[in-house]
Structures are given as structure tokens and as C-alpha cells.
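User: I've been going back and forth on whether these two constructs are worth ordering. Before I decide, could you fold them both?

Assistant: Sure. I'll take them in the order you sent them. The first construct and its C-alpha cells:
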Amino acid sequence: QMAEPAGTNTTGSVVLLPVSEHLGFPLDQVNFVVCQLLGLTAAFWFRLHLRPSRFSPLARHAVATAFGVAILIFCFGWYSAHVLVLVTACYLIMVFADVNNVHKYSLVAAMGYLTACQVCRAYIFSYAVPSTDFSGPLMIVTQKITTLAFQLHDGKAAKCDQLTAEQKLVAITARPSLLEYLSYNLNFLSILVGPCSNYRDYLDFIEGGHIRRRLRPPASACNGHKRPRRGPEPDLEPGPGPEPSPLSAVCQKLLVCCGCVLFFLLVTRSLPIKANGDAAFVRQNSFLVRLTYAFFSIQAARPKFYFAWMLASEAIHNAAGYGFSGMDEKGKPRWDLIRNLDILGVETATSFKTFIDNWNIQTAVWLKAVCYDRAPHRLALTFILSALWHGVLPGYYFTFITAIPITMAARAIRKSLRHYFLRSRGLKLGYDVVTWASTQLAICYTVMPFLLLSVESTFIYYRSMYFHVHIISILVAVALKPQHKSSKASSSSSPSAMCP
């Protein structure tokens, strides 16, 4: 938490220690914010001065990688070696492994190394080793390593009829060079908090076709053929006019970041999450007070995630010219290709699916690509993979296991009951209000262990809530199961609904 006292509990640089002591924030978090602000400045420079028209892709790859490694070392010191070792090892797997199994080997190696580091840090050293939590960059490169490995397998080994339309679109047919691989995994835009993006999109951005390609009208030559993996495509006419500027989008996202910081300073610190798992707090307050406090403390905890994702995942990428997805119906540029968060969608979600679809969006895309679309028992395995990726502390597993019956119940209710409330605006409005409140309370109940982390605190909280969401979800899922499972469409509904 940002409210912890300042200190030197980091293996990263101590240059900013006076700033940390003056502000009263931990040094590792001061280092993180400063590196993100430097990354934002570097992103503008990267777009304005290191343009593809003036510098080769080789130079752009090299600069993006060098800046990323420098940020990594500044924040984590010698712990950055874990990230570099994982990326190097998985590149060797990509080069030498059989293409039919490269995705499996890469997934096992990346997830295995990530889990081993998390186990050592949490249980062997009990967080006694002074360090910033270096698992964040490890988690991001794990997503990228496995995403690229699956896309290579799809492009070189999988049969066309085995792939979905999305998999065909992002598949690649050639192994990346070492520099391309390092740049994709270690670039300064995403090294700290991501997000993971498709390798082909990143390559287009580096080579200069990222915006130009999306300004062109669809070519009649597509007709089901894959677009080339790279290249300037000289046979196509360039897009009309100059490339759109991301300045307006960046400014809007920076304003949101400022609002999140202000909200944190004024509200979040006054509603500590840990109180929900405190036995004394539970004894002293009634159920309604506990429920109300849990709801508002969870709401207050969200802005710190909004800040990190809005600044790193969107503003920095957009400032570098990455993230353009085309023009909207009003002719204005959209910079949401690698959007990781929709705050309005999260806060107004009227279903578990809608909330999940708008929260940590690129992680949901990754889970869908490497697990949900390919695995048997895909709902359970996707939630388990998500828990394992987040870490080894018990709270993560309580959260994602709890999400399984809630997701099943939410599906059942929507399929069995929703159509009765679509007959008039009044009924629909009432349905939306009830489902919004139910969704927000269910999310609060589900996510609480994720923030409390320990078994003891989690059980104190769930006992204080009388396990009511667990009980209701299981009863609803069982009661509505006959109606719910009758249609094949149910099993093939949007996979993003099940990606945590």
C-alpha cells in the first residue's frame, strides 16, 4: 500500500531516497512512478524523433529494448536478472524446440519459473529479502512469451481448420530475431505493468505500418488471405492525410490519472481493506455495517489500479504512437487498440461478464488465447491459470475459485430470467438497477480475498458475511441448470465472459 512509511526496502536504485523520505512514500513506489513519468517523456521522443521514416526498425528495436532494460535495472537492481534469464531461456526454446510443441514448452517454462520465484519470495524468504516486488515484470513477460509461442505454433504447425478467426489473424509464420524478441518482451513501454499486445501489432508499430494500415480502407484482395507478417506494402495507397496525433487521448488519460491520485490521497487511505478481515472490526459492527464498509472499501481500492493501467498501459503507449485502432463513426481517431481498462464499463457493470470484460482487458485476452479457446473444462482451468499467474498466496485462489459458481449462476440467471424484463423500459430499468447492485456486491465479495491474501483474514471476512454469496450462487446454478444447459449457444457464448 502507498501509505506505508518510506524506507530503503528495495534492491533498486536509492538515488531518489531523499524524495521518498520527504513525501513519506516507499522508495520502490517512488522509483516506479518516476520511471513511468520518464517513460512517458521517452515515448513522446520515440514518436517525434525516432520515426520509422528516419530510423530503421533495427534502431527502434534497439532503443526500445535498451530503455526497457535500464528501467528494469533502476527499479529492481539485481532482481532484474530473473526477467532477463526467463526471456533468454524462452527464446532458446522458441529457436530450438519443435514447432509442434513450442507453445507447450514455453507455457510450462514461463509459468514454472514465475511460480518458482513467487514461492521462493513468499514462503522461503517470507518477503524478508529487501526488494521491490519484481513479480510484476515477470508476469508481463510470461504473458508475452506464451502469447508469441502460441501465435508461432498457430502460424507454422496448426491446420487452418483448427484455428478460430482470431487465431488466424494474429498467427505468425516466422520466428522473430533475437532483437525483435527482446524488444517485444522488454521494451520500455510495457516492461513494468504491461499490457501484453499481439506480436504482429508491435512489429507493425516499430516498422511504421501500425497507423497507416488502419487508415486504409479494407482491401478487396483480403478475401480470407492473411496479411503479410511485415513490410511497407508499396502496392497499396497510403492513408489519407497526416497521421493522427495521440496528444488529445494522452491528455485525457493523464487527467484520469491525476483524479485517481487525488481520490487515493483523500479517500482510499481512510478506508483500509485490512479492516474487513480484522476480528475486532467484525465483532464491533453489525452485518449491514460490515457489508457497507466492504463495498465502499473495495470501490476505494480500485483507483490505484486505474492509475497504473491508465498511465502505463495506455498513456505511455499512445504517446509513442502505439494503440491506434482506426477512426470512429464521427471521424475521430480511436486509441484503444491495447486498452486495458474501461472505467465506465467497470463502474456501471450490470453482470459479472460485463465487469470482467472491462477489467484488465488484455489479461482476459491472453487467458482466452492460451487457455479458454484450447483447453477442456475451460471455465475452471481458465480461472485456475489466472490464479496461478497472479501468485501463490491463498487469497488469489479463494477469489478465482469463488468466481466459478458466481459465473455459472450469473449465466443461468441471464439466460433464464432476463428476457422477461425486456418487455418495457420500466421493467428493463428495474432489472438493470438490481443486477448492477448485485454485480457490484458479488464483485466485492469475490475480490476481497485477493486483497486480504491470507487464509485467516479471508475466513474472518467470509464468516462475517455468512458465506451468503457462495450459498446463493450454488443454489441458483443448481436450480436453473436444466434451463441453462439446454442450448448449445450457451456453451459457445462469448469466451471473454469467463476470462478473469
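The second construct, handled the same way:
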Amino acid sequence: MASISAEQTNNEIVKKNRIQVSNTKKPLFFYVNLAKRYLQQHAEIELSALGMAITTVVTIAEILKNNGFVNEKSILTSTVGTKDAAKGRIVHKARIEIVLEKSEKFDSLMATAAHQANGNGKVEKVEKVEKMEKKQ
């Protein structure tokens, strides 16, 4: 019987609350809203991106911080070697990981936002959001 180390368990937890951002696949506020949904389920989230998507991750983190939803916990930068099929060689890309933790005001801010939106139909139904998360 194989035993699971604490490090493996921690890595699995991180994957459940990690959002890998692309600057071409989804609009900016898709990721902002997704981060808020993840924060409703987890105490912290990790935003990560490669190359040109790094600016998108930084923007998402700043929006969440400036609106009081999160506190910045850590930022890690590195380079990753990826194989470029067209060039047939390894290309190094910049990588960023930003860990954000739920602020003390998070729950009250989310409740206020939901209350304000209830009258004008701008808040999506929970089922629709859950379907979007399952697709990923």
C-alpha cells in the first residue's frame, strides 16, 4: 500500500484552488469572478500564468486587492522551459504565481454585491456558474 506524503496532499489542495490564466481564452472579468467563486470555497487561491498572460494575472490580483476582497500572501516568479514544436527547441518562458488569501471583509463584500444585484438581474444564477466551472 502506498502512503501519501504531506507534500503530495498539499499539492493536490493547491490544484483545486489554482486558476491558470491565459490572455487569449477568456475575458479579464471572467477570471475576477471565477477567483471570487473559488474564494467562497477556499481560504486562499493561486493565480498562475506564463509569458504574456502575466500582465493579466497581475491585473486580476490588483482588482481583487483594490476592492478589498483579498490580501496578497506571496508572489513567486520563475522561468519554465517549454518545447516549441515549430522551432524544435526548448523556449524559456517567464512564469508567475500569486497566492491571495481571503480578506476579513470578503464575506460582507460578497453579500453586499449579491444584495445590490438581486433587483437588477445582473448576478448569474449559481447553477450557471457551477456549469461554467465544471467545463474547465
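Notes on the second construct follow. The chain is about 45% helix and 30% strand. Helices lie at 6-16, 28-41, 54-66, 106-118, 126-135.
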